[in-house]
Amino acid sequence: MPRPELLEQIYTIVDQIPAGRVTTYGRIAAMTEGATPRMVGSAMRHLPEGHQLPWHRVIAASLTLADHGGADRQHQKLRDEGVMFDSKGRVPAHLVWPD
């Protein structure tokens, strides 16, 4: 798990991702003071109970959903926000935040 100060940075960034948009583990890591994409993934896997963070808006650099147990739920939550996927399961690049 990332250090507490990195966790706070990661969660603050994730909280800012607008509905209908996505960002990548790497983009979030680049906005912190030292987190790696893997640390961001770990932070998403260990979200505190009862959180309201839009974890589903964080995707892989390939613009696909990471292979994890919540991928079906993530896919549905994104679709509910109007995010569409191409035939290969990728999110269109124009939906990546920040611009």
From TrEMBL:
SUPFAM superfamilies per the UniProt record, alphabetical: Methylated DNA-protein cysteine methyltransferase, C-terminal domain
UniProt organism field: Vreelandella alkaliphila
Pfam families registered for this protein in UniProt: DNA_binding_1
Biological-process GO terms, alphabetical: DNA repair; methylation
Name of the protein this chain belongs to: Cysteine methyltransferase
Keywords (A to Z) from UniProt: DNA damage, Methyltransferase, Transferase
GO molecular-function terms, A-Z: methyltransferase activity
Record domain Methylated-DNA-[protein]-cysteine S-methyltransferase DNA binding: where: 8-83
Domain of life: Bacteria
